[in-house]
Specification:
Layout lengths: L1 H10 L9 E8 L5 E8 L12 H14 L2 E7 L2 E8 L30 E5 L3 H13 L4 E5 L2 H10 L4 E5 L1 E2 L2 E2 L1 H9 L4 E5 L16 E3 L4 H18 L1
Parallel strand pairs: 5-6, 5-7, 7-10, 10-11
Antiparallel strand pairs: 1-2, 2-4, 3-4, 8-9
């Protein structure tokens, strides 16, 4: 829904003009429901759509249909306004992110990763393709990509990567079985997390370097280099 709003704002709304403004706010009420307000001002004059296409239907029906929440879209001349209410059962209030010292630091002086074989565990295709491209920019030799823990474990039966990068949250599961196998085989690896994913990492794996999504080549290079250095120190 927010992707559709942002796309429309970039094409026709506040994000299409330099002096316009987009304001997005959200809050969690006493009942635990989350309210998100989207307000555009200063852009082109807004007119209601002549027909309801897929985008309009998505905006008005997706949250009520899928979540049992509320959607209100107002095509005010001065700018589009939207309000969404997400029911409490779909809302999680997360603790603050960890201090920067707990994550892999970003450094352009990170050792070169030329020729290394990498196991990438990521369940989102677009993110996986982006990560593969970044790893290749870092100079790695080969990237084996797996979408599930089971698939990654099968890859490990046939190959021995030099280093691995594991997305913590894999849809309905996680990458911890892969992490445990890598630990057993003393293969260095890093975790890749979205906001809040770090809270589910087991205590036994808290020492593993973490890179935060969205990441960039320098961040990945620094994280992988740190994992390799830590493993060498242990051996």
């Amino acid at each position: 829904v927010t992707h559709e709003l942002a796309t429309n704002a970039a094409k026709y709304g506040a994000l299409s003009q330099k002096n316009a403004e987009l304001n997005v706010t959200w809050r969690v009420g006493e009942d635990g429901a989350a309210e998100l307000l989207w307000t555009e001002t200063g852009g082109p004059t807004v007119t209601p759509p002549n027909r309801k296409g897929f985008g309009s239907i998505l905006l008005t029906r997706s949250v009520p249909f899928d979540l049992g929440g509320e959607s209100e879209i107002t095509y005010a001349p001065e700018g589009l306004r939207a309000r969404f209410l997400i029911p409490q059962r779909f809302v999680s209030v997360l603790p603050p992110p960890p201090a920067a010292t707990e994550e892999a630091s970003i450094s352009r002086d990170a050792p070169v990763l030329d020729g290394l074989d990498v196991l990438l565990v990521e369940d989102q295709l677009i993110i996986a393709l982006d990560a593969e491209a970044m790893l290749q920019m870092c100079g790695v030799g080969n990237v084996d990509t797996a979408a599930t823990a089971a698939e990654a474990l099968r890859v490990l039966v046939a190959t021995t990567p030099d280093v691995a990068m594991l997305d913590v949250n894999l849809g309905s599961g996680n990458s911890f079985p892969v992490a445990e196998e890598l630990e057993r085989r003393k293969i260095p690896f890093i975790f890749a997390t979205g906001y809040g994913d770090h809270v589910i990492i087991p205590r036994s794996l808290k020492h593993i370097p973490v890179v935060r999504k969205p990441y960039d080549p320098d961040q990945l290079a620094a994280g992988l280099a740190r994992a390799i250095a830590m493993r060498r120190e242990q051996t």
